[in-house]
Amino acid sequence: MKERVTNPDSLDPISIAILQNALRSIADEAYLALMKSAYSTNIKERHDHSIIVMDAKGRIVAQAERALPGHVGAALGVLEAIYERYDESEILPGDIFITNDPYKGGTTHLPDVNIVKPYFVDGRFLGLICTLAHHADIGGAAPGSMSSHLTNLYQEGIRIPAMKLMREGELDKDVFDLILANIRIPIERRGDYFAQIAACNLGERRMQELAQSYSAGVLEAAYEEIISRTAVRIEAALRRIPDGVYRFEDVMDDDGFGAVNIPLKLEVRVKNGYPTFDFTGCAPQVTGNINCTFNATKRVVAYVLKALLDPDIPTNQGMFDCFDVIAEDSTIVNSTFPAAVANRSQTSQRVADMVIGALAPALPDRATGCSHGTTVLAGFSGPYSKNPDGYVYFEVVAGGGGARATKDGKHGVMVHVTNTSNLPVEVIEMEYPLFVESYALVENSGGLGKFCGGRGIRRIVRPLEEPCYFEGNGERFKNQPWGVFGGGPGKSGRFYLRHDDGRTEELPGKVAGLAIGKNQSIVIEAPGGGGYGPFSERSHDGLERDVRAGNYTETYLEIAVPDRFGPASREE
Amino acid sequence: MFVVGCDVGGTFTDFCAIDMDTGAEIVFKVPSTPDDPARAIVDGLDRMLASHGVSADQVARLEHGTTVATNTLIQRKGATVVLITTEGFADLLEIGRQIRPHNYDLQQDAPTPLVPAELRFELAERVLATGEPHKVPTAEDIDRIVARCLDAGADACAVCFLFSFLNPRHEEAVGEALARRRPDLPVSLSSEVLPEFREFERLTTTVLNAYLQPALGSYLSHLKQQMDARYPGVVIGINQSSGGLMSVERARNYPIRTALSGPAAGVAGAIQVAKTSGEPNVITLDMGGTSADVCLIREFAFDVGLDHNVSGFPIRLPVVGINTVGAGGGSIAWMEADGLLKVGPISAGSVPGPACYGSGGTEPTVTDANLLLGRLSEGGLLAGEMPLDRAASEAVFERLSRQIGMQSFDIAQGVLEIVVSNMVQAIRSISTERGHDPRECVLMAFGGAGPLHGVEVARALGIDRVLVPAAPGILCAKGLVVADLTEEFSRTVRVRPETDGMDAVWRYLGELVEAGSAWFATEEIPENERVARAVLEVRYIGQNYEVPIEVADYSKGPPEKHLSVDELRELFMREHDRRYGFFNAEDPVEVVNVRLRVRGRLKRIDAAPSAPQAEEGAGEPITHRDVQFKRGAWVKTPIYDRASLAAGTRIAGPAVLQQMDTTIVVYPGDKASVQGNGNLLIEIGAI
Q1: Is the CB of residue A31 less than 8 Å away from at least one CB of chain B?
Q2: Residues of B whose CB is below 8 A from A312
Q3: Which ipTM was obtained for this model?
Q4: Biggest alpha carbon distance in chain B?
Q5: Helices B139-151 and B169-181, packing angle to 10 deg
Q6: Is B179 within the bounds of a domain?
Q7: Which of A197, A533, B74, B213 has the fewest CB atoms within 10 Å, measured from its CB?
């Protein structure tokens, strides 16, 4: 083995690059281990989890590359939460902390459980390994803890302040049993907690191995370099945005409790390459559970900056220190306790749309038409003859991607804060009393444009046993995804019920616990993406492909754009 | 009788022939003929045999590694495929798993589906999760859809229905109807290509297979014709991605199995070399111009993985567990926006190649760094056929030096450190991350650039020995010669042993064993050369990824005593603990897939470890030059011609050994010795 590096002054652009890779590999390895050994669908199939390496100041040094963008900067604030309850001298080797508190502890809704292990080098506390994962249930009033009818944090599940789950290597059975007693299907969930603890231990072990090659002082110096170099990199990218003021307004459909057409406002002020994202004027927080905490809003802004300016920039603290966010207290983008937040991703997606919309004039080559702008959540639950515990199955159905400056939007794809896989139809039908009748793209759903938006997905599901309860949470069911630079809007999404006698019944965008029978099926349609540029500029090739591929029906185009082919093309 | 291995690469077609009676080995190389790869094969064979006085009737088998499928895919030059799916699911190919390939890149998409929407047809049919038919397709519907497929001008047809892995009847009915109308149309049924659950992976694997069927089919027919004309009676074996061979007939039906076969033969060759040196546990490092392949060999065997990505498409098939990282001689060094030095993944390739090749390369590469530091000779590669231009390397590094603000030589040393750390990471992910300690292995370095970096890679991993094969350039051909005929049968069963017992598992396995016996018979494998091993893929109920557990040897019929539920649980917990660092002792498990790996041993070449203790002696250096082994320290280093070093030669580092197709760097403190079989063993000293 090589000699241990102990002199911080020896760090250079080579050794820092090597160390940065090593740190990211630690996060990536633990990320995969957690994914493969977890029980929760959200983790094993949807990859709704993340691994973060922090320094002793609670700053992010490295994050698993494949973690969902919604997890960017996840866990920020967890060390402060630990310090609120413990003195630094009480943080000991072998300890493992747990928290899920969105208002105090760095998560953004209760099902995201953060399990954190401190690591020590040369006898010093040098940082934390954070494992954050979306559990299939965290207790509260509804199975899955995500139901649309939850109206405050108490209903959304058990709230765990930052506390020790393990003390110097020993599991605190009292704490653990208290948590398990408050969640559904505790046997399966227990496996998830163990998988997370194992991932923590793995990360910590790898840090120890790394510390055989580098002293604590060298690691600390490298952390500073990694963070400051990323800051310099993002600041350089930010200078592509011309100084000025950029504004955007959007409207959310509803919260399921009477608040409809909820207004959102954003003003971006850029001065000397430093942007301030001012959300003043956004609606007050709502009764339904689509509120975003300030932390969640800030992370979405960081995600969009990375996506628009420099997709390969490493995720660390440097990304978060180069812009400012202003949002009034107790608004939908900066909610205060105990506002309900389980479905905060609806508002997160809207914040992403708004930042892109606002910056589009400044970055026309990089901006896109509005994506489908929501996470269409569809859940099914009920008793099951093959499982005495019953079943709970949640799925997010993807819509269309926004069109881009040089190409159409992608059909049926996850956007922005989320990028979670579907569950195979064969897995759904083997594990739950459900029958999937169709899984297809919605025709005519992409916004027309020089480049068209992508098409949304339609999934049709029928229960095989009764009763079956349907949960739905969707956005942009009324306020369509907009196009940019003259592009048309994508088609709205919708939920509806189809009876075997042929009748259909439109459902609202937020559905809680609707009982459906075996003679009915639920149709879930996710919105399409918005177009880019005017449709009149679309190439003839593109138009012919559209019709051939079934993206648009002839009838639709005849009505939407009667003169689409123009006299010249008819002769061809 | 001779068995010939023939590996067709982009530049050379390599041969390795072994006389099964005497063990004598012939090695031969001719330029490839990319317009018609068969020409180089047949002509090369003629020339090789003629030059060694071997007659055509002394050749028993030709084992062939082909890149036709791989290239067809990369160039997107496959067939026009029509796809038939269950009604309501024609868009599945487009939707995939509904994820985007890059979390943050708004411009990057999954690859465009190989079958466009207008060639995807739906049939009114459905099978339930129990395997029972829910809607049986009518003969009229089948005829109508077959007519549409044929009208669409398809070259091949893929059929993938939901739950066909439980009940293939509907797919088979369509296949039969197609065969009646167009017997020559290649058809891929998902229940034959991959009878396992998870419809999207089964679908893409099936579509890719159909996409490749016409191209590989016509290539194989042509090759067989050419061979039959000159070598009647020679049996041809085709290399699979799993490392085994298959018959031409099977290759025609399952071309997708060859798509990742390139590196597999190299690993098989490495095992052969490992046997001659008596090293059961090896990590291979095959570093070429654009990338490095690494693989873990335990007890002379490699792991086989199932989930892979081919040109951006997910597939599920047995593939040798190779990890590829974008670290090769041509990998370009550059400064990232944050001022840090990066190497790769972009490569200058062979055209224009590194700056020192003098063919228009303008970017600093790993090869340029090696030249600057004296590790490569200005005299050039390929025994001087390819001179290297040191001034060109200096110029491109000078530019990087100004950008980063460090000395050129220091940056060159840094480039090597980074490329080594990238390879170390790739090795860790197939060893440490899977619970295997690399320090228990010897590192086998080959490929043009592997032996340049092997010693440093080993040192970083705590490995104390590096082995460089005598002929590192023909490992693939060598691997082909020794390969066996293999096949794999699998089935998704989902049995819960604690409640269902193990009987169901053994029953399903019994069906696979029958299929295996039929295969042994078709392939005419003698009884005593049959190997059949059963693997169960097990997980905790509720998990998503299975852990493979080898449970029984069916080579000589069913085992006398089957595993009990408790024994299976025990094996599973142990493996789960090794992989993930924990297990849940009380949780119930399920058996998801049963799998039978069968192998027909074709030849027995017993590579007894040859005595490495030839007479000790020191080699004569051909020259000396200054070489930098660590930053800032130049060492006058003896340079050897490897070909001149007799068995038993011992050389103390520092030293550089040059040979036709590679260069070996031995560090100060390390000791190299030439083994009796010509392999070079480097013992890593402490620094």
Answers
A1: no
A2: 104
A3: 0.93
A4: 83
A5: 50
A6: yes
A7: B74
